[in-house]
Amino acid sequence: MDEAVRPSALYPEIQPHRAGRLPVPGGHVLAWEQCGDPAGLPVVVLHGGPGAGCTPMQRRFFDPTAYRIVLFDQRGAGRSTPHASLHRNTTADLVADIEALRDSLGIERWLVFGGSWGSTLALAYAGAHPRRCLGLVLRGVWLCRPDDLAWQFGGLRGIYPEHWRDFAGRLPEDERVDPIAAYLRRLADPDPAVHLPAAAAWNAYEARCSRLQPMTDDDVAALPSRLALARIEAHYMRHAAFLHPRQLLDAVPRLRHLPAVVVHGRYDMLCRIDAAFALVEGWHAARLVVVPDAGHSASEPGIQRALVAATDGFRSLAARPARRRAGGSATPRPAR
Fold it and tell me: Nearest CA to 61 among 308, 264, 328?
């Protein structure tokens, strides 16, 4: 459908035509769904957070007549079980899960789409399995370097001092030197009276810093507590996403042959734009799109336009063989 006749940059709302659950090691069961054309170009959508889960909006970044759209909730997130679990929940586990899902669906190679934490996971997956990737579409790149963490929980207070005050002010003064660890202790507490207020504060801080246009107090008050997002995100940040400081950048030589579009808001305050520039440097098949009037959120109009333009551009890959079995298997096989 031509964008000129759509009310927004996104494609119309669609519903899954297949859905299921995939058991993976460690007692986790992943919820997955497929939308669009079963014989279309396969694309896997990696949600943010980690812990955020997939949303209906994420189905709409792709032409449903051209793409076989695969979405799944990562360990502990969304409809996957056990909910908000930190057990066996590391980047290496998630990379293995993506491979297990690809294999179970009978897909030989696919386009990898991810924003924010989803970009981190996409790069980790592509670095480990470059032959399974047709290309990448990344948004709001987060490399999880020490400087990235120091910015989000330190330098950012100079941009949003009032948001930092609300976030850090909930902690005793002696715990503010390491707010990630302090919040993780509360978020991992089994008592809802402890973990739910901590989740609300964590999510509010992130949401308020993610948009170019500020959220109203009513918007902040309406945010759900989203325990899985806050708990799993703090867990990953406490462990630097279980990555070496330069692991993602050092993987770029293995990805240079893969086409990629990197979309980044000029005023992204959560994931600084220098990460996007560092990523594409030397990646000759990658193209950086800087959105001049956007922050971090995928809901911002300029970000949405750029992402849809990127996926529209990748439709030409449909001519390449990408499926091992037409339409995939009827029922995914459990991961071994």
Answer: 308
